[in-house]
TrEMBL record:
Keywords: Periplasm, Signal, Sugar transport, Transport. Pfam families: SBP_bac_1. InterPro entries: Bact_solute-bd_prot1 (IPR050490), SBP (IPR006059). This is Multiple sugar transport system substrate-binding protein. Its main location: periplasm. Transmembrane segments: none annotated. Belongs to the bacterial solute-binding protein 1 family. It is found in: Periplasm. Residues 1-25 form the signal peptide. GO terms for cellular component: periplasmic space. It comes from the Bacteria.
Length: 411
């Protein structure tokens, strides 16, 4: 009896042991995302839940911070082994590669990925011939316009040049339709650099030449002069100097702007009758050009997902990244951010209801102009943000402000 009881205990212990590995097989990975623009927090959570359903042995802990906190949070967490997967801006691979923040994943990228993803999208994650992640958000800024306001002003077509935009805004203002027809994201933040870069691309400017600042003259100076003129002319909403992209979206959705520069995500949000007063009146075209210099203008505002060098679970992290950037996932959420996959643009499920945006994207995404590629990007951006703000507030002439930015850029 004692022997049989012992055997029963042993059997129970063995059965229990058989279940132990399964119970403890779950791997946790920590992922850092931003809580604004493109995919919303709810959408990223839904994508992650779908991933966990397909991979029940991997748990994903999500953290969201505003864009402005994304870079510092990533860098500061390295010492504590904080994150496995991080969202990163196109401007950071040079710095992250130089400081060993992200893993080189070139060997993990398959031929199907190389062939299927739009060529321009790879510039988001590549530096010095290596890939530091997968492109995820493919984006540029477009010119949005209120079709109803333009029609009331007797304007037949949206502007094709930046000068035309100012002329049309003046017509709208003079007719009493809107006091300040243009809205921009000119807060002292990266948002202002994205608007500035769009204009630098229009004016054929250069940020760097032989590794040294070149924005103090030519197209770089022309771009800042345009911003200041637009601001001081009374055509631009004076609060633009404090606006981020979400502020611009709210003003535009409220019917208080005829023109606004913003990312892809605004198109479907501004067309949602539940939240927007301008649903059905939203027009979108590539950002304008400059006569004799450019047809259109565009900034590369894309973002990628990468594995940090602090990650203890790089294989699981890569599995999560490939799911999040897969064509199936991207197509499902194409109303928020356009897919990185070339063949997605032939899929009616992606294009239906946003044909106007897709038409603008085919031109805008091909013209994306990069912000400067340098490991010292943060210092350069901070110096330029200050120069833009000083110029808008009349504290310095644009040429002096840009000379100061060049001196303070660390380059």
């Amino acid at each position: 009896m004692l022997k049989s009881f012992s055997r029963m205990l042993l059997g129970a212990a063995l059965i229990g042991a058989a279940f132990v590995p399964q119970a403890f097989a779950e791997t946790s990975i920590n992922a850092l995302f931003m809580a604004q623009a493109a995919y919303s927090e709810a959408d990223v959570r839904a994508m992650s839940e779908a991933f966990t359903k397909a991979n029940p042995d991997i748990k994903v802990n999500l953290e969201f911070v505003p864009y402005e906190g994304l870079h510092d949070k990533t860098v500061l967490a390295q010492g504590s082994g904080g994150y496995d997967v991080v969202l990163f801006d196109v401007i950071w691979p040079a710095e992250y590669a130089s400081n060993n923040v992200l893993v080189d994943v070139s060997s993990r990228i398959t031929d199907d990925m190389k062939k299927g993803v739009l060529p321009g999208a790879w510039t988001t994650v590549n530096y010095d011939g290596k890939s530091y992640g997968m492109p995820w958000i493919l984006d540029t800024k477009y010119l949005f316009y209120n079709k109803e306001i333009l029609e009331k002003a007797g304007i037949q077509n949206p502007p094709k040049t930046w000068d035309e935009l100012a002329e049309q805004a003046k017509i709208i203002k003079d007719k009493g339709l809107l006091a300040t027809p243009i809205s921009w994201s000119w807060s002292q933040a990266e948002a202002a650099i994205c608007d500035y870069t769009t204009l630098v691309s229009a004016y054929g400017g250069e940020f760097l030449k032989d590794g040294k600042p070149a924005f103090q003259s030519g197209g770089g100076l022309d771009a800042l002069n345009y911003m200041v003129t637009s601001y001081t002319s009374g055509l631009t909403n004076p609060n633009s100097k404090e606006f981020l992209e979400e502020d611009v979206r709210k003003v535009f959705q409220n019917g208080e702007a005829a023109f606004a520069l913003n990312w892809t995500y605004m198109y479907n949000m501004a067309n949602d009758p539940k939240d927007s007063k301008v649903a059905g009146k939203v027009g979108v075209v590539p950002a304008p050009g400059v006569a004799g210099k450019s047809e259109v203008s565009a900034v590369n505002g894309s973002m990628g997902l990468g594995i940090t060098t602090a990650s203890k679970n790089p294989d699981e992290a890569w599995k999560f990244i490939t799911f999040m950037t897969s064509q199936a996932t991207q197509n499902q959420y194409a109303k928020l951010s356009l897919p990185i996959w070339a063949s997605s643009y032939e899929d009616p499920a992606v294009t239906k209801g946003q044909e106007e945006l897709i038409a603008a994207a085919k031109i805008g995404l091909a013209a994306m102009y990069p912000r400067p590629t340098t490991p010292k990007y943060q210092e350069l951006s901070t110096a330029l943000q200050q120069a833009i703000q000083e110029s808008l507030l009349g504290q310095a002439k644009p040429e002096d402000a840009l000379k100061g930015a060049a001196e303070n850029s660390g380059l």
